[in-house]
Amino acid sequence: MLADHINTILLNGRSALLSAIGHIAFPLFTIIWAANLPDDAVRLRQRARRLWLWAMATQPLFWLAFMMKGQSWLALNILFAYAGCTQMLSWASRWGVNGAMAGLAVLLMLAWPLTPASYGIPGVVFCLLCMAARCISAVAESRLFLLLVLAALAWLNTPGSGYENTFMYDLLPTLAVPLLIIAAVAALPHISATRLWPRRFFYHAYAGHLTLLGVLAVMPVRV
Q1: What is the largest CA-CA distance in the chain?
Q2: Quick check: 10 and 216 in contact, CB under 8 A?
Q3: Please, which pLDDT band fits residue 222 given cuts at 50, 70 and 90?
Q4: Coil, helix or strand for 101?
Q5: CB proximity list for 111: less than 8 A, separation 6 or greater
Q6: N or C: which end of the chain has fewer CB within 10 A?
Q7: For the segment 83-109, what is each residue's pLDDT rounded down to a tens digit?
Q8: What are the tens digits of pLDDT across the range 18-32?
Q9: Burial letters for 115-148: b for 16+ Cβ neighbours within 10 Å, e otherwise?
Q10: 191 CB contacts (<8 Å, ≥6 apart)?
Q11: Which of helix, strand or coil describes residue 56?
C-alpha cells in the first residue's frame, strides 16, 4: 500500500514495480480483515462503529494526500469499504434478511465514491466474497467459490498499466503473491498463531502514511 501510494502521489505513477507491489496490499488486507471479523453480535457492532469512525477521521488525510493528483473530493478511502461490509454483516446478524438488504443498499451508495481510488464495485465484491468465506464454511470449500474469488482478484486490477503489462504488473501480483503469502503463513503454526503487529496497527499506519505523503505532496519543490 505504501509503495503504491508513493508511486501515485510522489512519482506520478512512473514506477511499474512499485505499482505491482502496491497491488498486493488490498487483497491481503481484505483477507486479514475478513479473517478477524468477530462472531459475537455486540463486538461486530463495535467493529463496524470503529471502522466508520476511522474512515471519517482519515478522509481529510486522504484528501490531503491525493488532492494534488486531481482526485475528486467525492472519492472515499478504502476504510469506507470495510466499514460498509462490516455494517452489512452486523445488520444481517441482528435483523436477518432485512438487515442484509439495508447493508447492501449502503454498499451500493458507497460503490461510486469508492471507484476513483478505492477499487469501487470490484473491491466491494472481493470484500463480500472474503466475508462469505469467513462466515459460511461450506462456501469457502466450494470450487466454484474459489473460481469466483480468482475472478474477483483479476477484476480488481484489469486493465492496469497498459494491456501489454497487465499480466506482469497487475494480474500476477494480485493473484499469485497474496495467495502464496497466506499459504506460507498458514503452513507455519507458530507464526500464524502469533499477532505480528500491535492491536489496531492498520488504522494508525493508514492515517500516518497518508499524513506523511500528503505533507510531502504539498511541500514546494526546491532545486
Answers
A1: 61
A2: yes
A3: very low
A4: helix
A5: 120, 121, 124
A6: C
A7: 999 999 999 999 999 999 999 999 999
A8: 777 777 788 888 888
A9: bebbbbebbbbbbbbbbbbbeeeeeeeeeebeeb
A10: 185
A11: helix
Contact 74, 113 (CB under 8 A): yes
111-114's contacts with Cβ under 8 Å and 24+ in sequence apart are 113/74, 113/75, 113/76, 113/80, 114/75, 114/76, 114/78, 114/80, 114/81
In the block, which residue shows the cell 492496469? 160
Q: Which amino acid is at 175?
A: L
Where are any strands of DSSP class E within the chain?
A: none
Chain mean position to CA 153: 12
- What cell was used for 114? 469508492
For the record, the C-alpha cell of 150 comes out as 480468482
Three-class SS state of 77: coil
Task: Tally the residues of the chain.
Answer: 223
**Helix pair angle (41-66, 79-95), 10° resolution:** 160
Please state, in angstroms and as integers, the Cα–Cα distance from residue 65 to each residue in 23, 69, 92, 112, 214, following that order.
18, 8, 35, 20, 4
C-alpha cell at 103: 447493508
Phi, psi (5° rounding) for residue 119?
75, -10
Compute the chain's Rg from CA coordinates.
18
C-alpha cell of residue 128: 463480500
Contact 179, 152 (CB under 8 A): no
> Which position has the grid cell 507491489?
21
Q: Specify the 3-state DSSP secondary structure of 2.
A: helix
